[in-house]
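task queued by scheduler; priority normal; single chain, no ligands, no partner chains; default sampling; output format set to structure tokens
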Amino acid sequence: FVCLCKTKMTIRFRRPTGAHLDVKELEYISAIHQTDLTKVRMDGSIEDNDIRLFLMSRYGIEVTNKDVRKEIIRGLGGGNEEEDDKIDLMEVVAMLMIPTLVKASRKPKTLPKGLVKPRAGLLNYVISMILHDTTGSKAPKELTRDLIKKILISYGEIDLACENQIVEEMYEAASTPTGKLDAGAFAKALTSDVQLYNVMNETRVSTVFDDVYFTKQHKDDETWDEEEEGMSMDAALEMRKLGKELKSSQFTVSPIDRTAGTYRDKTIIVLLWTVFTLQYFAAYSSGVRYVEQDPCGDVPFAYNASWKQQSDAIKCVITAGVISWLKIFLIATLFGISFVGFGSIGNFRGCSKRWAILPLVGAFFSFLLNRITNTQVIRSAGELYLLSVALVLGILASVLHMFHFMEIVLSTDFIRSVPFLEFCTTTSCRLSETNVKQSAAFKMSEMTKNAIAIAESKEQDVVVGSYFGQGLLRFSKKGNYEEIGGFSWTWTRIFDRTLFTEDGIWLSARLLSSNAAQFLVSLFVVIAGIKLCITTNQEYGVDRAKAVTKDYTSLVFDTSVDRDLATRVVLETTVQFSTFLSDNPNYILTRSDQCSDDSLLRNMTWLGHLGCVWEGEFFRCDPDSSFDYLCSLEEAEAEDFDTMDTEELLINLAFLNASGLDVDAIINTTNTAIQEASDSSVNSLYPVKEYMIVIPFVIGTIVAFITAISLAVTYIPSATATTLKLRSGVIPTLEDPKFHQYREAADQVTILLGSLFWGCLIASVFIGGLAGCVIFLFLWQASIGIVQILVARLVGLLVVILLKVLLLQTCRTAFYTALYRKRPAEANLSSLALESANFALSVGFVFLRMIKLIVTAALYVGRIDSFFLAKGVGEIDFKNFNYKIDNYPYIFVKDILSQEAHRHPYIELLGCMYLLKLRYGEHFGNRAGSTWRLLFVYALMPWLHRYRIAARSIEHNDDDDNYHQHHADSSSRTLELQSTPKQQQDQEEEKTEETTDHRDEEQTKNGKKGGRPRVMMAVFKAWSASPLSPLLEKDSIAKPQPPSLHQDIMTDLQMRNDELEEENEYLRELLSKNGIEEHNNHIARLEFVQEV
């Protein structure tokens, strides 16, 4: 009950919706795409090294950072310098938009069924937004280079507007016979350079690598439709001849790649790991520790000895433990490599007929090694059951290898003619990757719909009239939230496949193997519980069962009775007898005349003269001696027993034995009596009725099974919820300055499989055992009395608590409303009374809290997928040293991030774009098309402009100081026109004033009279490049502005225009005299800005 309720609370959560969710997910993919181990680039930029490492880890493709910069960043990212080493988040979105734009550029009727179709009229809607915000009218305009420059400047891309080459390329890309910048021209500009992307791949059952490199699955595809594909098969083959083969690729051992999931069939991996778990657990449960005999058998280990006395035994046990665990480690490693490794041979994509034998090798090892371990030694019934299940699963893995073999050697036509064979040869990996491709298409469609929903909700009663400004204004408002996650929500979406085709969740082989291990624990708990009940029924009351009980009791209590203990009892009895002689008056009267003074000597010096010698266990005196030994017992007192030393006590025993009493018989009788009493005490602990054991076992088994199965069925929902929390920003990623810690020690995820198995087993057994123990205490004859008293007292306490609750409810209703008091006087008096009473009752509450925490902690031993300790609790973070008491939840999140970094739908789509660019080079993607797509993102999602600014404001690793200055200046201007911080504004104005003073001095030196007038920089910058510049044009304003404000703005602009004319003339003269080349670009920019 606790497990299910707690799970519901932890995996159900609220997340933002709409465009806010899209932004959080874009931030997330940037965070997991980055590879910096020391920090998180919160601007969302992705560097060349990040892309290089992704290509190596995901596809095994080896490229250099230079190749990435030249091909991907410059060609697809639209970098304005050949050596740009990063792309910002807006450029990433522009790349992700390529499939959507290609589909949008086609007629909806030509798109095949099954594709996620974009919004009808998407391109027409966006170009209307761009024209409205740039020219003040939605009507198509004549396509000119000046219009392109004006659009670039309107969206803050001043540097691009000043590059005549890129402007010319953009003009050529958008040119159509109509000569207009309309939807058709816009579609051509956006997609003319990316026609090699095939939209049919979104629904084709294939991998991304197959889609790009046109493998056998595509060549044999009989469903090729020229109208749907947009070209004939022959044309497609000819076009793909333009591509280059892989420059360099590395062998990644893909059959066992559980990180990137590049194996062929996920089911084989899960089956092999499940068999491995069963095999090891069968050996472990039987006590086979791979140690033939106890190496410490010659060094006995006493359970009641001191540390010093046990030093030799402890050293031996430590040495044996080290050797034993090293053997287990090595044998488990070798078995895992031999069984899982060799059993996975052939389980990779692209296996040609030349290597068709490899799946047969994998099938052979999957069966052979499993069979060998089943016949090695004689097994118990439980072990045989587990190994039989392992054998069946191993055979199933061999069968899947055989299907792979048939897929290789048989023709595609024949396979498709047999539906069952086609189903069996369709691998889970290709299906899963197809789901991811469909999810990426669905997500991009939803992203455009969310952006359009914001654009269409344009408000007319605000001062901002452009779509860009309206979008920013609307996005800045608080969005809506939805509640998702949970047990039923997850499993419902698993069964209807929307969890994969829409959410794009990738269930990795490691996750499924770990979950299968938890289900195995559930099975084991049931089997073990049934066997315990049967064994109890068969052996209840048998002497062997009692002997076992005695053996376990002796580990805690010393129940053995030796002769020394019996002798000690007899010695005390001797003293008691001496007391009797002294206290009996009649006996003293009859014996006083017979006892002489010399017979009362009680020292060791005279014992030899009395005929007493040490023999065996005590002194023995000569019974034939004339000395009356009995007289010496008269002076012994019972109260002196504790003060007597051992020698004195043994003397008394010797005197008694010499007087004719058979001391040996007394000791033996005493020893027997004490041992019987001890055994009787131990046997009294044994339950007198069979149900006292059976019922706790049954209830414990049920509780343990419920615990184990609850952990098993909630693991996938929990992993899904954690993934969605990361994507939606509920768990911070890009905004978390410590997120880079998740990138460290990626190999820690290998601990999850074993930890989930043993954690689930220990948690379920502990919780079940605890429940069984509680029931046992209620039934056991030795504890039932104590439990009855305890229950009675608890009932009394509960009655008091119930009365207290009723009183509190009355007081709260009468005295309080929320955090305020309606009747302060009465509230203060009731608070004083309650605080005093709670001081006495809190001791019980504290103990109850301790019990709840212990039980919950035991349950969370198996919940490594969820945080038990609050953030910061149990953590030591000092400089570069970071230690967490409970590190498992972080490792669990790290495993999810590792899978997402390779298999997130956006990452998968980016990987497709990377591969297409690497293969086709200049034939896929260019700067002109990338810039047009960047403008598309600007217009449709203006809230992403902050990531464009952030990415471009970071200096590159370049030795050219002019490059840094040029790039920083353009970035700062763009930043200011969007949302300028006051401090940066002041710095820019100070810089402008210094520049103005310097130029005034130059004018004086050259004979110029007067200085250049002060410039109203803030007004000019907010007009010259801002996406909100159409607000200043009369036609683009939704409602007329106040005349005074409009007049002031126009006056400021006229002043700025006059200043620009004067500055332009000055720079021309300076250029003619000094020939300074860099001033030429500045003059061209000023002329163009003045024209705009």
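post-processing summary
- The mean pLDDT is 77.
- Residues 477 and 1048 are 30 Å apart (CA to CA).
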